[in-house]
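Might you be able to check the backbone structure tokens below? Thank you kindly.
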Amino acid sequence: MTGSSPQLLLDARAELGEGPAWDARRGLLYWVDIHAGHVHLFDPAGGTDRLLELGEPVGCAVPTRAGGLLTALRSGFWTLSLPPVTRTLLAAPENRPGNRFNDGKCDPAGRFLAGSMDNAEQEASGSLYSLAPDGTLKILLTGLRISNGLTWSPDYRTFYFIDTPTRLVTAYDYDLETGGIANPRPVVRVPDELGWPDGMTSDQEGMLWVALWGGAKVTRWNPATGQMAAAYSLPALNVTSCVFGGPELSDLYITSACKGMTPEQLAEYPLSGGLFRMATGTRGLPTFEFAA
């Protein structure tokens, strides 16, 4: 497998660009700027980027089978119909004023998994939730610091998850019928000098693609060995997440952030907060839709 260098698509200068999700039916990339409360709808064909202002922090946005979006806002899980934008609350899992939602995505059966975290990034007050299409809500994990990347193996039997301060990618047995997780074990440890593991996706070869906050890279790892197989540099310091998209699911879309950067860092990495794309030479797993 070979990959090209990531290319800038949009000099968005997002404070906390995150959560890319590919809508194969529309050919659109959804991504968010968390603290700004913005959901972006990027059209690669035309290079246009439509902005939805939601008025509160938004951790992620994913496509739904009904044709809209499901978002994890600070206040809970909301569906958005497009257009015009109308909001419907599905669940309000938390009543913690200091918390907000962060990364999330749907599993292959159409459940929505999203994690919360302390907005100040100090307390282990986060949880990972699973919302079924019938409205059933489960708590899968608690005691999380910075709930972050999540993805599945190609056979859907393994769920991978990142709580960023641990520097670990943890694997769990995944029961697709019930949405339950079991048997946690570390499969990747990101060394200190590489930065912090952030968002994540996987390809059809079973390899994990991990964005590195503070590392200016997106990386590919073999969960069977724990070894890094490839690293791709970006002109952005805080690389936040990635997802496969495009007609063949072979393009990797990458988000980044300029949050907390010094003037010197911004001078060195002036495209931080931008949206990028790279051709990978492999195919990724699709973005699964919420099945309601």
About this structure: Helices lie at 263-268. The first strand starts at residue 7 and ends at 10. The chain is about 0% helix and 55% strand.
